[in-house]
Amino acid sequence: MSDAIPVILVICLASMWVLVPATGPRRARRRSRDAALGLQSRYRFTPDPDPHPLAELSSLPPFHYGKQRQVSNAVKGSFAGLAGEVFGYSCRENGAQHWYEVAVVRLGRNLPPLEIQHEPVFTSARVHHTQTEDRQPTGVEDFDSAYRAWTPDDRLASELITPGFARTLLTAPEPCDWRVEAGLLVLWKRDGWQDSTALVDCCLTVVHALAPVLDLDPDRFDVPRSIPGPGQGPGER
């Protein structure tokens, strides 16, 4: 029996090595499929049989790494009147498979690059991760300790990366990563959102936070307004 114990341990470790990395992709595939169905049944999205998002997004995380890139469960619709697309995305990097749910919102106006980063792009510890440029603090500790906000545009940083911006983003139902590049807002969450409602609410929350620089009326968006900080009125940031 004593000789069998090491063998059993080796078998168990080998099984964990094989099965555990596959758990995330399976869960992500299921979430992506369920999100697409939920977007169609609840939010009037329609299937997109011929999506072409990757060439347009190739310079953005998480699309600038990896091989064997695939798009699945693509649907199209709108977020508060702004055209959008949602799809599952997978790639292989350094021997590991990575799955994401991605939402693309077309803002209708070009903006300088702006990135909000919550977690490393890849789930595998074997993949080197490069942080964004220097963090630009908002003054809200809960946000600054969990996210990295960055833009190369000083004017955009002073106008947008504020306590009110941070408090608005903290109302999102789930943390996620996103970037504005030209006229696109791209949100991604590795292994996917919990459901289609959480995905939509995250998209609307980000659009609400961007509303001041998009010349949009925040009251159009079904998300909470910024919570005023100490000594601030409802209209102040």
List the helices and strands and how they pair.
Blueprint: H1 4-43, E1 46-47, H2 54-57, E2 67-79, E3 82-93, E4 96-117, H3 141-144, E5 148-150, H4 154-160, H5 163-169, E6 177-190, H6 196-214
Walkthrough of the structure:
- The chain is of the alpha+beta class and 237 residues long.
- Strands 1, 2, 3, 4, 5 and 6 form a 6-stranded antiparallel beta sheet that branches.
- It contains 6 helices and 6 strands, in the order H-E-H-E-E-E-H-E-H-H-E-H.
- Helix 1 packs across helix 6 and helix 5 (163-169) packs antiparallel against helix 6 (196-214).
- It has one domain (4-220).
- The longest helix has 40 residues, at 4-43.
- The model is unreliable at 10-22, 124-132 and 223-237 (pLDDT under 50).
- It is globular.
